[in-house]
Amino acid sequence: MNYLFHIIVLIGLYVMLSQSLNIVMGYGGLVSVCQAAFYGLGAYTCALLMVFAGWSFLTASAAAIAVTGAVAFFLSFPAVRFRDDFFMLATLGFQMIVFTVLYNWVDLTRGAYGVAGIPRPSAGDVTVEAPWAYALLVACVACVLVFTVHRILSSAYGRTLRAVRDDQLAAQSLGKNVDRFRRSAFTIAGTLAAIPGVLFACYATYIDPTSFTIEESVFILSIVIIGGAGNIRGPLLGAVLMVLLPEGLRFVQIPDSVAANVRQIIYGLLIVVLMNIRPQGIAGKYAFD
Amino acid sequence: MLQILVFGACKGSVYALVALGFGLIFTTTRVFHFAHGAIYVLASFMLYLFARQLQWPFTAALVLAVSIAVLVGMIIELVVYRPLKRKGASGVVMMISSLGVYIVIVNLLTMCFGNETKILHEGAERGIAIGPITLTHIQVWQCLAAVGLTTLYALFLRFTALGRTCRAVADNLTLASVLGVRVDATRLTACAIGAFLAAAGSILLALDVGIDPQGGFGAFMVSAVACILVGLNRFVAPALGGLLLGLLQSVAVWWTSAQWETVVVFIVLILALWVRPSGLWGVVSRVEEQ
């Protein structure tokens, strides 16, 4: 039963990560490979504040979201100067920098040792401790986040964002500041990734930099690609599929030593095949053209 | 300090080769060839397989390893990029597919060979002292091979029919195909030569410091950054970019510590892209082309 709750938590976290990435990738048309960097920034800020500064869960998570949002905001200025492949490369660079800092700035982040003993979330005298309670918490937060993303993207803002993605010149000639829209999409996507970061830190109670690698970013990217970019249900489907896939592999008795590789090979192949026959993913709308 | 610069130059010459290959593939096919990193790792692993695990003579193993890398490079073009190009897929779609190919190849390799760094060449080597600096044999080889291959490559582009078609396709794809250049064949050649250069660089570095299964990512980044630094659409200049990055990394490592080696490349990338998105000698593209 606890296994089931664990799966629910994982699905919830990846739903949030992929939905946030979808804002910049599916609606902004900019393929970003640094979602795990924001995820990690959120997780680390929250964990360090709670463990070493003794902040409460609510203030620490608010601070984590604020810090991540600020970083995303400042980064968005250089980032939106790039398009397409170059944007992907630049975000890849940022992802690498964040990972290296988390790994090597031992005085602040404890480097490879990681941060242990992160308390479970609590407000007042209610502490979310049991697996079912945590699954419920993550599921609720994920629902709220998906709903918020849906509202943001179906508003005039979301429509403009799509217009900028599909025809920059037309949007510009209608007086839209295209760079501002791209910047805001990037900032929102980064800020929202801090929320699953906080929840992950408190769920695992121990974090180290290996959870926030390039592979993780690529995994989140592949959720959006495989599920489909440009609408809400694509990344939702992708997150469920991609979290259940390795769990499914567990049942077909693949030895543990190669399980991780087999999983990566499968999603690598899925990406290649889908990009060829269906670039908009299984249920998506935007085909990266 | 001189020693550090020379070490940087050795490393830079390896980077130069890999970057040349990446640059050739990008300019002719317009694919941001992520899988270049995978081919880079593949070549060294094949050499490890034949020379160390199967104990074949070194020359035979070397030839076979490079051939396999070239073959895989061509297969990627045939199976992945060509169908995409027929469909008129965008650069982003190409790059994502390339990323997929990279993931598949690297994981197949780590599945077969394990995830730890492999040593190709055992035992400490006696250095050769040239004035105040000391070099190992393999480092001398790195420099010589880089200079030799770069010269050959430049001559190939300038004086052979194939080289000229490569430049024609890169310069104006439509015009080239109208004038009867066989674009598909040219792309395939470019991928083969690109893979060859990647394999050469990879093996030269692997003989020195061993094979890191995850090193392909760094190789891809370095070569992409080297090409961007000098401006895309250039054939021989990426070698200079690679050399420069090698020097920069060495100096940075000397100043700080080895952990920040990769970060240097990215900071250079971000600065270069920010200050001059078109590269040091590139042309500025218009909004419609973005």
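Chain A has a mean pLDDT of 86.
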